[in-house]
């Protein structure tokens, strides 16, 4: 299994700190999944922007989008 050296919230600076602040505002905490992005704060922001766009109001409800994401993850054998 590969290991990624992550930067925790307490040591984050600059763009990474801004990303962690966005996550904290949205979720109330920083979950470990997002810490893996600490090696590339630019990609963290891109992921947050993408997830925000996908989750934005549209033809499907938020719950339906979450159900689809869960079904796709299960079909892909995702364990988290």
Number of helices: 4
How many β-strand runs? 0
Strand count, sense and barrel status of the largest sheet are: none
End-to-end separation in angstroms reads 15 Å
Mean pLDDT: 91
Low-pLDDT stretches are: none
Strand residue percentage:
under 5%
Shape: globular
The helicity comes to 55-70%
Order of helices and strands: HHHH
Structure classification: mainly alpha
Cα gyration radius (Å): 14 Å
Describe this protein's structure.
The structure is a single chain. With 80 residues, the chain is an all-alpha fold. It is 59% helix and 0% strand. The protein has helices at 14-27, 32-35, 41-55, 62-75. It is globular. The chain starts with 13 loop residues before the first helix and ends in a 5-residue tail after the last helix. The mean pLDDT is 91.
List keywords for this structure.
80 residues; mainly alpha
């Amino acid at each position: 299994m590969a290991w990624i050296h992550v930067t925790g919230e307490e040591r984050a600076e600059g763009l990474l700190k801004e990303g962690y602040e966005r996550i904290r505002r949205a979720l109330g905490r920083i979950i470990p999944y997002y810490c893996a992005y600490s090696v590339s704060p630019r990609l963290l922001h891109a992921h947050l922007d993408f997830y925000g766009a996908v989750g934005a109001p549209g033809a499907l409800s938020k719950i339906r989008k979450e159900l689809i994401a869960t079904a796709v993850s299960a079909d892909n054998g995702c364990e988290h």
